[in-house]
Design brief:
The protein is mainly alpha-helical and 198 residues long. Helix content is 70%, strand content 0%. The chain is built from 11 helices and no strands. It has helices spanning 14-24, 27-35, 38-46, 51-71, 77-96, 108-115, 124-128, 130-137, 142-153, 158-165, 169-196. α1 packs antiparallel against α2 (27-35). It is flat and about 45 Å long.
Length: 198
Amino acid sequence: MAFIHHNSDNGADDAQMIRIYKQSGKLEDLATLYQRYMNLVYGVCLRYFDEEASKDVVMQIFEELIVKVQQYEIQNFKSWLHVLTRNHCLMKLRAMKNKESREISLDVLPVMENEQFTHHDGGTALETNLQEMERCMETLPEEQKRSVDLFYLKEKSYKEVADLTGYEMKKVKSYIQNGKRNLKNCMEEHNAAAKQSY
């Protein structure tokens, strides 16, 4: 699995390596961090693909990290990477399948709240509809999008969301509630449109 070339590991912990990469933007810094967990990523990929395809996916995930590590505040890189890898594999599998009619679950957000950042094999509704959810997130008003993203995807508390955004606590709860409802409505409309196309 030594197909990402990088500098030798400098002994810094994961959080330090993330900070170094965010400051430098150098791929070799990210590669040093990624090398630590390539076997874990490869192992997850092997659950879904053969050896050659898994190696390709390992490289694709590295390319995805180039942008995403810069974008997100990552508390536990190993756990975060595990979830990212699993979702990447599932999305790739869906893309490889022929189009088929699917029911879009309207319980995506409750599932996301409970399963998104665990390693259980539950959360099927979220994984199946991840792309639709991300597309619908972009349709939300900025306040709702930021609040929902922080509360569900980054697991922040109401107070932390309020502190990070500067929104009042009452507003935060309203944005999350309305954003959750609007996401469900958006996915429901997508489901209806998909049915009409068949």
